[in-house]
Design brief:
Chain lengths: 226, 705
């Protein structure tokens, strides 16, 4: 899941300062699950913005909507009539969602209310941790299911830096050393021999990446470029 | 679990009263709402609140934790306290197709009671057919009540000169004061029911004759003929039936009983007769009953009160013979033992040989059983069963005669008031369908929730039933004053707050994003990750509302109070405050569990809104009052360990922190929002608020000077 957090209120307020009609759009997928961009947060942000602007003597109209996913045009399409009535859209989705909406509604500015942070997993109620950097060339099979790209502070893929102490990363003492974890897991699995052959060159992806599944498509014409 | 499952109390009630509905209204001090919910199914709330046999309480799940909710006593409270209020509730509950959920009328239809017919769908204009109800006990009057509200013209025929049947003649004043009964009956009659008193079926009119003037007849003549024990000399002077005895007393007579009275029987009537004898001055009153306390139809509590008043009860004892010379002098009894189960499911009492003994008696009162007065209907063409009961085709009460329905004790044999009311309701429904030519229908059967899981039972803190205070024994035994005194406001609210509000909890909607936050935070561990969305077993949910305010998708609704209701309540209170407030407008949310008797006070200018656990307040609800114009918001909260919803206090504190942060960010100021623990803190808060001034959002808006 994509994990995001809400931007500081000041920043959001500043972004919309020149607009009178703002539509806040929440996303019902990842950011709802990480408790930051779903219907509840939309309601809160709307109320806060209304009040803040009123105090400044600069009333605004705030619309509130939450759609299932902002990374699919079909869902975005569903709100086009509402969107047309606003000066600006404030998206509470990850960066992908913001751009999904911007691509669809070309004449309305779309602003991010969130800072998109990482791909993560839940680590107990109200806690998420980054575990994958979406590098495009996954090596987890060799690293005991622990990703050094995302979880090593230095992103080293060919083994530890040598600076870890007591299993903790030398860069940040709160974080376990990814390579220490990898080693321990491989020993546990009796797969230490993978470590002998760890040196590797990872493909550097050419950005922006694009995934086209011809096997799942009927139409031959090129996809619309986003 | 099917959607049709309902709380155990409601399922056990013969008229499926929405118990959690009215009990929760009382727990918030809203007696008007409570009586509306009760009246929706029950035209005799004050009566049932006193003498109902309370099958609901025997089923109540609170007993898994400590003791059941005093459901009847709460009904009495709601009813007694709303006497002046003429609440007419259309009998929707039994007449709409789904029969659930309860819709409660509003203030508007109180001043302007809906004119018949209430049910617009399909019925068209005022039906106008005439229905005769024979018998004015609870079954008859309930049917009359419901039929009148459905738009029929009802006439009630009563053989006695006073209405009420057993309610008036059979149940003694100390348990059910006559004026209470009279008031309920007057109210029912005031709906527009004609009552003909002193007209007796078989003597003054016949069913056949009624059918000439009325399109349907409901027969509810009760079951008041006493059975006599098969003993020698039962006709001796001084041996009377309990029915006759209680009737005499109810009419103000004071029969001379002598010192020693023996009552034969173990039902409610036996107990009533015994306690009446005590009040008439007999000093040695003995009940003889052939089974044991466990089999006794009268409840244990009632038996205890009876013994407290000095009545002796001899179990496993049956009369064999009455001895005397003109006047009864002694009862010859035999000891019994319990054998195999009989057809009533109780162990059959068998005499023990050579165990006879005698008890001296100046009066003997027989209360062993009752059958209908079959003579009055024997020529009517109705098929009668054993003991003279009227045989009906099914639950609807239809008899073999077209247009003639029967219900109450004349069909079932002696039963309880609430069963009689249920039977009256069913008959009214059946008569309505008959007159409107509606097809037969199958009444829906509801299943009851399962019991609470042990894990949840352990998490609920114990609190015993509020005791109903009773008249001291000395005052009881020489008067007919009502023994049970009923609850005061605080007791009633406290008692109501013990209710687990079964079935009013959380429902997950399709908006669920499966974030599992609810699964992780429910203090009772009720939600589970379903295959697609989270699942909450409403039969186990404690309706604390915590998941509701933490669900990021706002996908959970609490049946107890919807989001819209909460919002509307807030808007109402703030609107009132805006109109009235002198200078600084303070809103207060108080925990009703912490302050059952009402809001904590604090003088003019504080507008309170009670919450059953302030932990239900989500962040939005804490900033919304400011958007509406409040200058300050205070909240009371229980100490952590006392929180009714386990984690409610802790969540509230989190929500307040977040709300204060937002208030600072938007420039309203965090210091306008505060927890307070007493009135002193409140007045400090208000002093500080004066310095801070009015809510900047309110600038320009007039508040009364
Ligand atoms: S190597 Fe790490 S960052 Fe790359 S895809 Fe695998 S888990 Fe993600
Ligand atoms: S706790 Fe309340 S709702 Fe539950 S069974 Fe008892 S009275 Fe009914
Ligand atoms: S908290 Fe809400 S969105 Fe999350 S699983 Fe529960 S019901 Fe679904
Ligand atoms: S309302 Fe309370 S008890 Fe019920 S599921 Fe939600 S958190 Fe659990």
């Amino acid at each position: 899941m994509i994990v995001a957090e809400i931007k500081p209120f000041e920043e959001i307020k500043n972004m919309i300062k020149n607009y009178q009609k703002v539509l806040i759009v929440g996303c019902g997928s990842c950011v709802t699950v990480c408790l930051t961009g779903g219907e509840r947060q939309v309601e809160l942000l709307a109320s806060a913005l209304r009040m803040a602007r009123k105090i400044e003597g600069n009333d605004i109209t705030v619309g509130e909507l939450t759609i299932r996913r902002q990374c699919d045009p079909e869902f975005i399409e569903q709100i086009k009539d509402e969107a047309a009535q606003y000066d600006v859209i404030l998206s509470m989705a990850c960066g992908a969602g913001v751009q999904g909406i911007a691509e669809r509604f070309k004449d309305i500015p779309v602003l991010p209310a969130m800072n998109t942070m990482f791909l993560g997993v839940s680590d107990g109620q109200g806690t998420w941790v980054e575990v994958c950097a979406a590098c495009g060339d996954c090596i987890l099979w060799k690293t005991g299911g622990i990703c050094p790209v995302a979880r090593c502070a230095k992103g080293l893929v060919n083994g530890p830096c040598g600076g870890s102490q007591g299993g903790l990363c030398e860069v940040s003492k709160d974080v376990p050393c990814a390579w220490q974890l990898i080693y321990a897991r491989l020993v546990r699995l009796n797969l230490q021999h993978f470590l002998k052959d760890i040196s590797q060159q990872k493909k550097q992806p050419v950005r922006p990446r694009r995934l086209v599944r011809e096997d799942l498509r009927l139409k031959k014409e090129p996809t619309k470029g986003v | 679990m099917s959607d049709k499952a309902i709380p155990l109390c409601q399922a056990a009630c013969p008229i499926n009263t929405d118990v959690p509905g009215y009990v929760s209204a009382i727990s918030r001090g809203d007696l008007e709402r409570a009586i509306r919910i009760i009246r929706q199914v029950n035209p005799f709330p004050s009566v049932c609140g006193r003498i109902c046999t309370r099958p609901c309480e025997s089923a109540c799940r609170r007993a898994q934790i400590d003791e059941p909710i005093a459901i009847a006593a709460l009904k009495r409270f709601a009813s007694d306290q709303t006497k002046g209020l003429k609440v007419v509730q259309p009998p929707e509950h039994f007449y709409n197709e789904t029969h659930m959920p309860t819709k409660v009328g509003t203030k508007e239809n109180e001043n302007n009671p809906p004119s018949p017919p209430f049910s617009k769908g399909g019925m068209g204009g005022f039906p106008g057919e005439k229905v005769a109800v024979v018998g004015s006990g609870p079954a008859g009057l309930t049917a009359a009540h419901d039929l009148t509200l459905l738009g029929y013209r009802v006439t009630v025929f009563e053989a006695q000169n006073i209405l009420g049947g057993m309610l008036i003649e059979g149940i003694p004043e100390y348990r059910l004061p006559k004026d209470v009964v009279k008031e309920e009956i007057d109210y029912i009659l005031s709906l527009g029911i004609e009552a003909k008193r002193g007209l007796s079926l078989g003597r003054d009119f016949t069913i056949e004759g009624l059918l000439k003037d009325y399109q349907a007849v409901f027969l509810a003549i009760g079951s008041q003929k006493s059975l006599l024990p098969r003993c020698n000399e039962v006709e001796l002077t001084g041996i009377i039936t309990a029915v006759e005895f209680l009737k005499q007393v109810s009419q103000g007579e004071r029969p001379l009983l002598g010192k020693r009275v023996v009552i034969v029987g173990g039902g409610h009537t036996a107990i009533d007769a015994a306690r009446t004898c005590v009040r008439l001055g007999s000093s040695e009153v003995t009940i003889i009953y052939r089974r044991t306390l466990d089999e006794m139809p009268a409840g244990k509590a009632e038996v205890e009160e009876t013994e407290n008043e000095g009545v002796k009860i001899r179990y496993l004892t049956a009369p064999v013979e009455f001895l005397g010379n003109g006047n009864v002098k002694k009862v010859r009894c035999i000891k019994m033992q319990l054998g195999e189960l009989d057809e009533s499911g109780r162990r059959r009492p068998l005499p023990i040989e050579n165990s006879e003994f005698e008890i001296e008696a100046d009066t003997v009162i027989l209360a062993i059983g009752y059958i209908p007065e079959a003579e009055t209907i024997k020529d009517s063409g109705l098929i009668l069963g054993k003991n003279g009961t009227v045989v009906v085709k099914d639950d609807t009460g239809a008899t073999n005669l077209k247009g003639v329905f029967a219900g109450g004790d004349v069909v079932s044999g002696p039963s309880s008031v609430i069963e009689a009311i249920a039977s009256g309701k069913k008959a009214a429904r059946a008569i309505h369908r008959y007159l409107r030519n509606l097809p037969d229908e199958k009444m829906e059967e509801y299943s009851a929730f399962r019991l609470l899981d042990d894990g949840i039972v352990k998490l609920i803190s114990k609190s015993n039933m509020q005791k109903v205070s009773t008249l001291p024994i000395e005052k009881r035994i020489n008067s007919f004053a009502e023994v049970e005194l009923g609850y005061n406001f605080e007791q009633a609210v406290k008692e109501a707050q013990r209710c687990l509000s079964c079935g009013t909890g959380a429902v997950v909607t399709e908006n669920c994003a499966s974030c599992l936050n609810c699964v992780r935070i429910c203090p009772y561990g009720v939600p589970v990750p379903g295959r697609e969305i989270a699942e909450i077993d409403i039969s186990q949910c404690q309706a604390c509302g915590i998941c509701v305010s933490e669900c990021p998708a706002s996908a959970i609704n609490l049946k107890l109070e919807t989001k819209e209701q909460v919002r509307a309540e807030m808007e109402d209170i703030i609107n009132i405050a805006m109109k009235e407030a002198q200078e600084i407008l303070t809103i207060g949310f108080y925990c009703q569990y912490k302050s059952p008797a009402g809001h904590p006070g604090g003088g003019n200018g504080v507008y309170w809104l009670g919450k059953l656990c302030t932990g239900r307040l989500d962040v939005f609800q804490l900033i919304y009052p400011f958007e509406l114009g409040a200058d300050g918001l205070v909240i009371t909260v229980c100490p952590d360990q006392e929180c009714h919803s386990r984690d409610g206090s802790r969540w509230l504190i989190k929500h307040i922190e977040k709300a204060r942060e937002i208030l600072d960010e938007i420039g309203i100021g965090a210091n306008r929002l505060s927890i307070i623990s007493d009135v002193e803190e409140l007045s400090d808060f208000r002093k500080r608020l004066l310095d801070v001034g009015i809510n900047p959002l309110r600038k320009g808006k007039k508040v009364k000077e």
